[in-house]
């Protein structure tokens, strides 16, 4: 009986695929015989995968590098500031505007370079409020000429003091004490209001709240209150001290 051509030539053909399986067979630990050509191909695949992984870790994406993170922070901050600019500190923001600002703020918060804000000097000083969702601060229901033109918030962590200030037309202000709850959050107890900037009025005992610092650098600070309000401020005077 004539021998099959594959036995004559010593070339094995896979009956299922027709692929050429020429070459000797090597027995692996699994007990299966693998053609040496296929084994060589697998080794090549593993080597290419090793080189690919090595390249990824040798040349990480730009956002993982220090310069890349700084550029990403700058970009996200710029997008947030541009979205805030036409909203009159939030007084004219629609619900859709508020949602968009909140989404942009969360992106900025995700790249916060200061993981423990209350342990950093960056938080200290006088900050200008540029956006908030707090209706009591915005006073949007009042005529425009009766609203404060500019609002400031100052924090001095070393003395555990906080101060909120309005400007024209009334120059009202309030000072209070802060108590750190963790490295990001403080409890706030307001102590004394000053009407027109000089008439002192003791704050009620209910004038309490909490404030979490969710982002801070040399230029920008984001905070969230326990009532769900968002506060975005830019640095005005890092040397300012709250009067004791």
UniProtKB/TrEMBL annotation:
Residues covered by the Plastid lipid-associated protein/fibrillin conserved domain: 74-234
Q: Which UniProt keywords apply?
A: Chloroplast, Plastid, Transit peptide
Its predominant location is plastid
Record's InterPro entries?
Answer: PAP, PAP/fibrillin_dom
Which top-rank group of organisms is this from?
Eukaryota
One annotated Gene Ontology cellular component of this protein: chloroplast
Q: Which family does it belong to?
A: Belongs to the PAP/fibrillin family.
How is this protein named in the record?
A: Plastid lipid-associated protein/fibrillin conserved domain
Q: Which organism is it from?
A: Arabidopsis thaliana x Arabidopsis arenosa
